[in-house]
Amino acid sequence: MTTYLEAEANPVRNTGTIRLYGSDAFEGMRKACAVTAECLDALAEIVKPGVTTQEIDDFVWAFGAERGAAPATLHYRGYTKSTCTSINHVVCHGIPNTKPLKEGDIVNIDVTYVVDGWHGDSSRMYPVGQIKRAAERLCEVTYRALLLGIEAVKPGARLGDIGAAIQTYAEAERCSVVRDFCGHGVGRLFHDAPNVLHYGSYGEGLELKPGMIFTIEPMINIGRPHVKILADGWTAVTRDRSLSAQYEHTLAVTETGYEVFTLSRNGQDTPGIKVPALDVAA
User: Fold this and answer.
1) Are 54 and 97 in contact (CB under 8 A)?
2) Which of 192, 176, 182, 141 is nearest to 159 (CA)?
C-alpha cells in the first residue's frame, strides 16, 4: 500500500513513501531548477562540431560554481563527471570525454544542480551542426511525448496516465519507448519515490496528489526499445545501434494541475529543433 506523507515528516532518504511538499519546497525547487534551465540555455551556443563533451562538462561545473550550485552527479555512486552527455545511439548516462562532437550528431545533455539542498534535474537534445531529418524527427517526437506526459498530470490522475500518454503517441509515430529507465521523485533527494514509467495503461498506478514533485524523462528510440550497459557500468546504448533521444523536465502536482520548474526562460527547451512550446498555464 502506498503511503503519502508531508515531506517535513519524512526522513531525507528514500523510504518508498511519497513526499508531499509545501510552498517553501516549491520555492526552493524553482531556484534550483532555474539554474539548471539557465545552464541548458547557455549550452545551445557551445554545442557545435569539434567541441568535446569534456569541454561541455567543464562548462557545466564552472557555470554552477559561479552561482553556488553543485552538480548532483559529481561523485554520485562513483560517477566522476558533472553531467551526462549521450550521443546518437547512447540512451542515457554517457560519460563526457575528449572525443570531439561531429557534424550531424545529436547529443542529450543532462544537468542536475543542487542549490540550498534542492535538486533541479533536466535534460535537452542538441543538434550538432546540420542533422539528418530522421534525427530531427526523433527529437520532435520525443519532446512531444514529454509534453503529452506532462499534460496528463493533475490531482486524481494516475501515474499510468503519464506512461500511457507517452507510449501511445511514440508508438503511433513508429518509435519505441525504453523500459529500462524511468522518471523519479526529486527534491531534497536526487532520486526518490515514485518511479515514473514512460509506458503503461490509463487509470493504473498510484494516484497523483498536490505536492508531489518528480521528473518525466522519456527515452525514445527510432528502432527497438532494448538497451545494454557498456563495460564502464554507466553508459546505456541501444542494442540495435538505432538513434535515441530524451528530454526531461522536473515538475510538481498542484491543486489544479502541474507546475514545470525547469522550463527555459528563453524558449529554448528544444534548442535547434522546432517543436511547439509547452503551455505553462495548465
Assistant:
1) yes
2) 182
User: Angle 212-216-219 (CA atoms, 0-180°, nearest 5)?
Assistant: 160
- For 116, residues 6+ apart whose C-beta sits below 8 A from its C-beta are 28, 31, 32
As given in the structure block, the three cell numbers for residue 20 are 508531499
Distance CA 227, CA 69 (A): 32
pLDDT in tens, 80-99: 999 999 999 999 999 999 99
Q: From the centroid of its chain, how far is CA 14?
A: 19
pLDDT tens readout for residues 177-195: 999 999 999 999 999 999 9
Residue 128 to residue 99: CA distance in whole angstroms: 14
Give the SS3 label for residue 34: helix
- At CA 16, angle to CA 14 and CA 19, rounded to 5? 80
Grid cell in block for residue 106: 545529436
Output the pTM of the full model.
0.94
Q: Show Cβ contacts of residue 5 under 8 Å, excluding neighbours closer than 6 positions.
A: 17, 18, 19, 20
HEC string for 44-70:
CCCCCCCCEHHHHHHHHHHHHHCCCCE
